[in-house]
Amino acid sequence: MKxxxxxxxxxxxxxxxxxxxxxxxxxxxxxxxNCEIRCTPGLPRGTSVNDCSFNTMNFYCPQDEYPxxxxxxxxxxxx
Length: 79
Known about the structure:
With about 80 residues, the chain is an alpha+beta fold. It has a domain at about 35-79. The protein has helices spanning about 5-10, 20-25, 55-60; strands spanning about 35-40, 45-50, 70-75. The chain has a three-stranded antiparallel sheet, covered by helices on one side. A hairpin with an 8-residue loop joins strand 1 (about 35-40) and strand 2 (about 45-50). The radius of gyration is 14 Å and the shape is globular.
C-alpha cells in the first residue's frame, strides 16, 4: 500500500490547518466541546467542535458542498 503525503494532494496554504488549529478540533460525545456543526440543516445531531471559526466550518462542511451549514456554540466558543 502506498503512503499518502500532503504534497501529493497539492493543497493551497489556506486549505491546510496549522498545528494550533488542529489541536482545537475534537469530536465525538463527551469531548468537552461547546459548539455543534450541522452540515445539513434539520439533522437531529451535529458534530461537536471547540469553535465555529471559518477554518473549522470549512474542514467539516466544505462551503461549496454545504452552503447552508450551521454552527452554534453554548458558551466560550467563537461563533
